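=== RUN LOG ===
request id: a7f3
mode: sequence -> structure
chains: 1
length: 319
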Amino acid sequence: MDLWRIERELKSAGFDSICGVDEAGRGPLAGPVFAAAVILPFGIDIPYLDDSKKLPEKTRETLFGKVTESAIDYGIGSADVQEIDELNILGATFLAMNRAVDSLKVKPGIALIDGNRDPVLKCRSRLIVGGDGKSASIAAASILAKVSRDSYMVDIAGKYPQYEFEKHKGYGTKLHYEKLLEYGPSVLHRTAFLRKFHAGSKTKAQVRGKWGEKHALEYLKSKNYTLVAESFRSRFGEIDLIVKNPEYIVFVEVKLRKNSAFAQAREFVGREKQRKMIATANYWLTSQRSPLQPRFDVIEVYAPDESARPEIIHIENAF
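=== RESULT ===
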């Protein structure tokens, strides 16, 4: 493929400053979307330059250095998760593209944009479907956008190690979905992108609930309780955890609290909830015939920052 054909045509039409624009990260479940704008010296030979999606990671990283060293000018822009949720992914992608082009010191005479949707830049533009495999300028932009976004996700993985972002970069891999089920979404996750995941598996509240129950159970085990049952259901209601020690069989309600401005989570175990738990516990005791003394506890999991270990508040004989 001749990657300079489009640029030659534009050069012969009188355009001297030709900019390639591409994005990375439209599809992941988490993290920002990135875009890059690149103005290359006309006709420069950069070995292995191609669509970033076709290249191994090490080759992309090597080309990132070669492109940034040889480019007349380049710019990198991004739109964060909040902007993605507010604008939708297409609008956020256009925002990132505009930021990348606006950051150029050399203003382009025309921008070549990968795709078939116009981001409405502050310069003339031309849309090219599959442009990252047809234009040297767009291919260079695709590499800068991809490597920049991957680097960001690797860096942010240190703050959210439980999701292992360094391995999947926020894309919807099997590992990422497993981590979502275990820990629930973080502030880096795109709300709109998780709707299908929630609909197909669990709601956000359910995912977070399981996350809270996991930490509550870890705490109880550290206090020498043994797990008897999780999420025990009857026609009367549900009990999050049933545990025991040598003296008690304990029916546990787990409550999460994220914000110190809200009422304490244990305050939400009202009379109706208590009634349902007692009825469900009696149902369990009838079938199991445990000789242990029954007790109802509430465990509050206070987690204002999901990247840190939560605070556990254990209320014995809560009602």
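=== NOTES ===
The CA atoms of residues 167 and 257 lie 30 Å apart.
The chain is about 40% helix and 20% strand.
=== END ===
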